[in-house]
From TrEMBL:
Gene3D superfamilies linked to this entry: ABC transporter involved in vitamin B12 uptake, BtuC
Membrane topology value: Multi-pass membrane protein
GO molecular function: transmembrane transporter activity
Transmembrane domains' residue ranges: 25-52, 81-101, 113-134, 140-159, 171-191, 259-286, 298-323, 329-347
Family: Belongs to the binding-protein-dependent transport system permease family. FecCD subfamily.
Protein's cellular compartments: Cell membrane
GO cellular component: plasma membrane
Pfam families assigned to the protein according to its UniProt record, in alphabetical order: FecCD (PF01032)
Gene Ontology process terms (BP): siderophore-iron import into cell
InterPro entries noted in UniProt: ABC_BtuC-like, ABC_transptr_permease_BtuC
Alphabetically ordered keywords of this record: Cell membrane, Membrane, Transmembrane, Transmembrane helix, Transport
The protein, known as: Iron ABC transporter permease
Organism: Kineosporia babensis
Length: 355
């Protein structure tokens, strides 16, 4: 628990600490249970609903006792189960990455997609696949991590220019500019030839369609490591919310927290991008939704984001299957549509606050 601070009632540090400590144990656990139910419902919908019809009996058998000679159960094993697992892993990673990056930067507009981290990972993976011919997941996954780290460094460097430093709006604008440039680079690399474009165009927007289980197995340990780091950062992010000087006064090593947070974000974002491509807005919307439920306490906000993000991604994927049936919309398009309005509202609120 964040230690008490002797501060006047009107002091901003005291107000921040009161917001952090407002969620009680019973309320927090009740929220966890509710989000677990939502996640279970999302998984069931993802398994049951697709561009084609699979009988419910085949859905059940395809999950628990599959017979690949039956078409419906084969669809479950080859398509829907890997797709659902991909949504769980990528959604969890993106939601936690957004929560951590917002906490460590104290920037409500921070998100791996908006800051260009997803696009950097995607561009690096396309370079490995389409230009270097490195098609093994245990090789090109490292390009995803390097691309994510480089993009984050570039965006922060550009956003930090000027006397006022790295403001939330400047970082968001720098991230969007970097994302656009990286998307153009990715598209140019995909247009190398028709075969390259047809095989790897998935990396332009992000999708859960046709995910190879080998990729999931390779990325899962890195996502798992990122999850553990993010969960461990809850108390430290609470301290950072009080300001760097106060955090140091509480005995926190601010530099170490930032380094560990950066490692967690790179692992989570790189893993999510390798699994599902550059999906945007999940890391922006989910922490804000979790904050509405859990308050500002990162000991609760991070677990809430962990459960809420995969639910959002799976439900968005189901919507994409239904809107264009019998074709499908890529989940990255749906999440962009869902996240655009909250992003506009957040930017307007930040600009009004700065006037």
């Amino acid at each position: 628990m964040t230690p008490a601070i002797d501060a006047p009632p009107g002091d901003p540090v005291a107000r921040t600490q009161r917001r952090i400590s407002q969620v009680r144990l019973g309320t927090g656990l009740a929220g966890i249970v509710g989000l677990l139910v939502l996640l279970l419902v999302s998984i069931v919908l993802s398994l049951c609903i697709g561009s084609g019809t699979v009988p419910l009996s085949d859905v059940w058998q395809g999950v628990f006792s599959p017979d690949r000679a039956v078409e419906g159960q084969l669809i479950m094993q080859e398509l829907r189960i890997p797709r659902t697992v991909a949504g769980l892993l990528a959604g969890t990673a993106l939601g936690l990455a957004g929560a951590v990056i917002q906490g460590v930067t104290r920037n409500p507009l921070a998100d791996p997609g908006l800051l260009g981290i997803n696009a950097g990972a995607a561009a690096a993976v396309v370079f490995a696949l389409g230009w270097l011919g490195l098609t093994s997941p245990n090789v090109y996954i490292w390009f995803g991590f390097v691309g994510a780290a480089l993009a984050a460094t570039v965006v922060y460097g550009i956003g930090s220019l000027g006397r006022e430093g790295a403001t939330p709006v400047k970082l968001a604008l720098a991230g969007q500019a970097t994302s656009a440039a990286l998307l153009a680079l990715t598209t140019a690399m995909l247009l190398k030839d028709t075969e390259t474009y047809d095989r790897y165009r998935f990396w332009q927007v992000g999708s859960l369609i046709g995910r190879d289980t080998t990729v999931l197995w390779q990325a899962a340990p890195f996502v798992g490591a990122g999850v553990l780091l993010a969960l461990a950062l809850g108390p430290q992010l609470n301290a950072l919310a009080l300001g760097d000087d106060v955090a140091r006064g509480l005995g926190q090593k601010v530099g170490t927290i930032r380094v560990v947070s950066a490692v967690a974000v790179v692992l989570l974002t790189g893993g999510a991008t390798v699994i599902a491509g550059p999906i945007a807005f999940v890391g922006l919307v989910v922490p804000h939704a979790a904050r509405m439920l859990a308050g500002a306490d990162y000991r609760w906000l991070i677990p809430y984001s962990l459960l809420l993000a995969p639910s959002l991604l799976l439900i968005s994927d189901v919507i994409g299957r239904l809107l264009a049936r019998p074709a499908e919309l890529q989940v990255g398009i749906v999440t962009a549509a869902v996240g655009a309005i909250p992003f506009i509202l957040l930017v307007r609120r930040r600009k009004m606050a700065e006037l």
